Structure formats: C-alpha cells, structure tokens
Amino acid sequence: xxxxxxxxxxxxxxxxxxxxxxxxxxxxxxxxxxxxxxxxxxxxxxxxxxxxxxxxxxxxxxxxxxxxxxxxxxxxxxxxxxxxxxxxxxxxxxxxxxxxxxxxxxxxxxxxxxxxxxxxxxxxxxxxxxxxxxxxxxxxxxxxxxxxxxxxxxxxxxxxxxxxxxxxxxxxxxxxxxxxxxxxxxxxxxxxxxxxxxxxxxxxxxxxxxxxxxxxxxxxxxxxxxxxxxxxxxxxxxxxxxxxxxxxxxxxxxxxxxxxxxxxxxxxxxxxxxxxxxxxxxxxxxxxxxxxxxxxxxxxxxx
Length: 303
Ligand code: FAD
Known about the structure:
By secondary structure, the chain is an alpha/beta fold. The chain has one domain: TIM Barrel, CATH 3.20.20. The protein contains 13 helices and 8 strands. An 8-stranded parallel beta barrel has the order 1-2-3-4-5-6-7-8, surrounded by 8 helices. Helix 6 packs across helix 7, helix 8 runs parallel beside helix 9 and helix 9 runs parallel beside helix 10. The longest helix has 20 residues. The site of flavin-adenine dinucleotide has 24 residues, from strand 4, strand 5 and strand 7.
C-alpha cells in the first residue's frame, strides 16, 4: 500500500513540487544521487574506480515531453562521456539511459526519436571506449525498448538492456536475450505494475528472479546481476562459478557490501545517478525500502 502510494507520487507533478521545494530533502537526496553536474559524476566515478568498483552512470530525467529536453539529455551524455575520456575514466565505464528521457514518450514519433537519440549516445560511448545500457521503465515501454535494443545492437553489439523479474513476460525475454555478446541486467523492477502483467507478491518476484537468473547464467550472454538482496547475491555467486558476469548495485546502497565484493575480485558495478531531475528516481528508492523512507522522514523532522 505504502509502496503503491509512493510510486504513484513518483509520477505526480503536485507531489513533486512539495518534495522538491522542501529544503530538508536535499540531505537525503545526496545519499542516493552523486550531484547535479558533470564534474560531480566524474568525481563520484573517480572515487568508485579508485576503490575497485566499476560504474554505470545515469543522467537523471524521464518522461520527457519536449524534443528540446530530449536533445539536452543527449548532449549531457555526450559531455559526460567526453569528460570521462579526458580523465582516463571512460574505458570500462557504462552509461545507463532511460529512453523516455530521450523522447520515447513523445506523441507520434517518440519511438523513432528515441532510437535516433540513443544512437547518438551509443556513438559517443563508442568514441570514448565506454558501453551503454538501456534502462527498462514501465511495462508499456518494454516492447519499444527491446525493439530499439535490437536496432542498436546491429551497429553497437555491446549495447545492453534491462529485464524486470516482476513482469510475467520476463522469463521469455531472458531466453531471447541469453545469446552471445548480449549484456543483460536482471533486476526485480521498480514501477507500479498491475496484476495483469506483473507478480504482486514479493516472494513470487524473487522466485522469478532466480528462474531468469538461471537462464541468463546458462546462456551465452553477459549477465549483470542488479540487486542488493543478499540471498540473490549468494545464489548468483553459485550459479556464476566459472563464467563471466557482474554484480550491480545502486549508489549509496550497501556500500560496504559493494566494497567486499570488489575486494574479493568480482566485478561490482555501481549505478551512479546525477543531475537535477532526481525526483522520480528518489521516490522509487523510498518506495523500495521502509528504512529509506524512515531516514527521509527523520531528516524532515529533525535539523
Ligand atoms: P529488495 O527486495 O528491494 O531488497 C532485498 C533485500 O536487499 C532487503 O531485504 C535487504 O536485505 C537488502 N537491501 C535492500 N536495500 C537495502 C539498503 N538500502 N540497505 C541495506 N540492505 C538493503 N529497476 C527498473 O525497473 N528498471 C531498471 O532499469 C533498473 N535498473 C537498476 C540498476 C541497478 C544497478 C540496480 C541495483 C537496480 C535497478 N533497478 C531498476 C531497481 C530494481 O528493480 C529494484 O527496484 C531495486 O534494486 C531493489 O531491489 P533489490 O533486488 O535490491 O531487492
């Protein structure tokens, strides 16, 4: 119930204003977001790389309804990739892109505009020596996102995608994507989805996660295990013995565990969000975990 309300608020302009205008929100946001500008993302990347972790960087923004905003997002990624290259940080780095931030949600030509914009980012990533992963958003965008993935992979075979264990369709998608060269991030899923398309019960989502993980680990692609769940991390360690795969976690969540995994020699990639449009991302993090919400509410009520 609380999760549903927070996820509904994540898409409400009114709730957005109330949260953004509260000056006390900032301190909590800083725990999950690396900063507002390119140099902040570069600084966070430097610290993570120095501690043995890899990064995937997200320029925050989603549900863009304006072509100019979509172009601005592309420019931000191009600037970021060039800054990473200048600092010697691009090799091995990845950028995560939400297609709705580069035009997918625009009426009429949205799919085409998102494809063209994602292609520009892929070209910049190639030039810098980095990779690109397409984030997955709500289920109404899944087909369009996987189509764009297929188009991009013809020219940039290292472009990766995300599948969400809470969707009924995902086991089939896992089979389709477990092919040579295919980078696939498996997560539980962060949006408010109806029972017609998604498992509602947490234990069912977890069971489907493991089913999909088995398929990815048995396939020829490159699995990216995105979870903070200790049980899933342990199972991935067992299933992935002797093969290439990586763990992924979000910036600011379980940082000690991230360091432990990196220190033992496994690839640990941290998802680093930055930018001023942090609202939707932040609300999804609150919805995931009551402790995150409690931390937020404490900061709101104490100085
Ligand atoms: P949860 O069920 O949230 O947590 C399971 C357990 O993990 C908890 O019981 C606890 O033991 C531990 N845990 C979780 N959080 C904490 C914490 N703060 N401190 C300590 N322990 C904790 N979702 C999408 O829909 N699309 C995407 O493209 C996408 N990309 C992602 C990329 C990355 C790298 C990651 C890590 C997540 C991404 N997500 C995405 C979000 C994902 O779908 C989940 O909403 C989110 O990761 C929470 O699920 P979880 O697997 O961590 O498990």
